[in-house]
Amino acid sequence: MIPAMATEQPIPGFYLVRHPLAELKVSALRDRSTPAPEFRRLLQELSQLVAYEALRDFSVEPVEVETPLATTTGARAVRPLVLVPVLRAGLAMADGILRILPSAAVGHIGMFRNEETLEPVSYYFRLPPGAAGAHVLLLDPMLATGNSLVAAADRLKKEGIPKLTCACIIASRQGVERLRAAHPDMPIYGAALDGELNDRGYITPGLGDAGDRIFGT
Description:
The chain has helices spanning 20-30, 36-54, 90-98, 147-158, 173-182, 210-215; strands at residues 2-3, 14-16, 60-66, 71-77, 81-87, 105-106, 108-113, 120-126, 135-139, 142-143, 163-167, 170-172, 188-190, 192-194, 196-197, 203-204. By secondary structure, it is of the alpha/beta class.
């Protein structure tokens, strides 16, 4: 895992998953002809690859484990892991990550973007018990303007979250810079870094509206 380079200068605190499997899945996600069921599956698999890197600093401690043959040293989590998807598109990321981390708890942040102002409008927030002592992985496939994820991180920090990491699939340079400026202590992991936003605030080339493509709407 190395800082993202793309074709421009790297952004401190943004880490790009560089792996052939990630590149293949990103390419298929971008393809407008990919049907919704395949899009969901690819996004869930790619979310697992991103989470694998994003949780490299997940704290564990040694624990004694009895195998069928001997005693050895294993590991257990120091603090619980909580996945917090931004509704609705973040749900697919959470579904994928739960397949490799089924013990993780899940919270939800409901936001939609005002299409005129491009500012987030919050309509739902709920965290599981014990989240205040957890490592929280904030999930949204598209980091576009950054406004929604800034608002989501603001709210999570107000809840006293001690460790916060952001995972996305496609990020815009503008969105990463906005999120890093507001939350410089929160690392961001993604599978692709695109250079531009269009006049509607969508990432270009991007992959379109992730929520619509996930749910076939």
